[in-house]
Design a protein that fits this description.
Elements (H helix, E strand, L loop, with lengths): L5 H23 L23 E5 L2 E4 H10 L9 H24 L6 H23 L6 H14 L4 E10 L2 H12 L4 H8 L11 E5 L6 H9 L10 E3 L2 E12 L5 H27 L7 H12 L2
Antiparallel strand pairs: 1-2, 3-4, 3-6, 5-6
């Protein structure tokens, strides 16, 4: 696990904030209406998993069966309004039941290919149960925090810089700007007057703080080579044009907070525990692969895990 997942975490937070804003829009649209206290949310009634939802040819279909159908078929119901998903899941469950009964009646359940498929699906389901109950559910908060602390300790310190730039089309223009800076001209004023970067015309070419690799390579190398308060004495060319860069400040980049990356840290613990369990079980199992080439290919794959 690396600590480069900060952007993904912030993107998720951004989506959450966006949804919150959308949920407030009806209130904002009715500024003249008197404020009304929010109605208390009705407490969800507990569901009896054994409650019968439908009966198909005398066989009960329970809430537990329906919940399983909703979970397994959730991808198919994503485009439906929430209030229709339960009915759609029930319709699908009934369809599955009647088709399955017909398959048994015609002897399809005795087919060798079907039985092999069923055996594999059972093994796959048991594999999933083992992962969930033997690995995922056993990961503690303390283990997750320890993994986070380990990653922070193992991550080399990285500097980030605060820089400004003036972007122009030609090397000659950039050299003329550097000459003015050498004569004592104000960088921010020159940026507002000359930069072709639209975002820099009103803020003195300010790029804010950024870390290694966030800018194009030529710009990145030049910016990180500068001393605080200095500007490039030679124009820097990139795919965007010619840059004059000034370094405003430099600092150690702060790692993401634990809460921002808690889920990723937990996934790393789960992954390690899973492969450790697989390694132990494989060591205890007697596995023979007669085909030498296939055996070698499998060993190559597993050596990379």
């Amino acid at each position: 696990m690396t600590l480069s997942f900060r952007r993904a975490s912030l993107a998720s937070l951004g989506l959450a904030f966006g949804l919150s804003a959308l949920s407030l829009s009806p209130v904002m649209a009715q500024e003249t209406a008197p404020a009304q206290p929010a109605a208390p949310a009705a407490a969800a009634k507990p569901v009896d998993p054994n409650a019968v939802v439908a009966t198909i040819n005398g066989q009960p279909l329970t809430e537990a069966d329906l919940g399983l159908a909703e979970g397994e078929l959730s991808q198919q119901f994503q485009q439906l309004p929430p209030e229709q998903r339960r009915a759609a899941a029930l319709s699908a469950a009934i369809e599955i039941r009647v088709m399955a009964a017909q398959a048994v009646a015609t002897g399809l359940d005795k087919d060798a290919d079907f039985q092999r498929r069923m055996a594999f699906l059972q093994q796959r389901a048991l594999h999933g149960e083992m992962v969930e109950k033997g690995v995922v559910n056993k990961v503690t908060d303390a283990e997750t925090r320890a993994r986070y602390d380990q990653e922070i300790a193992n991550t080399p310190p990285v500097n980030e810089v605060h820089a400004r730039h003036i972007l122009v089309k030609t090397k000659e223009e950039a050299e003329a700007i550097i000459k003015q800076l050498d004569g004592g001209a104000d960088f921010q004023k020159l940026a507002n007057e000359h930069t072709s970067d639209p975002s820099g015309k009103s803020n003195g070419g300010d790029l804010g703080w950024f870390g290694p690799g966030q800018m194009v390579p030529e710009f990145d190398k030049a910016a990180f080579a500068l001393e605080v308060g200095k500007y490039t004495k030679e124009p820097v060319q990139s795919q965007f044009g010619w840059h004059v860069i000034k370094l405003e400040d430099k600092r150690a980049k702060q790692p993401p907070a634990f809460e921002e990356v808690k889920d990723q840290a937990k996934q790393a613990v789960i992954r390690d525990k899973y492969f450790a369990l697989v390694k132990q079980l494989r060591a205890d199992a007697k596995v023979e692969i007669p085909d030498a080439n296939l055996k070698k290919a499998v060993e190559t794959i597993e050596s990379g895990k």
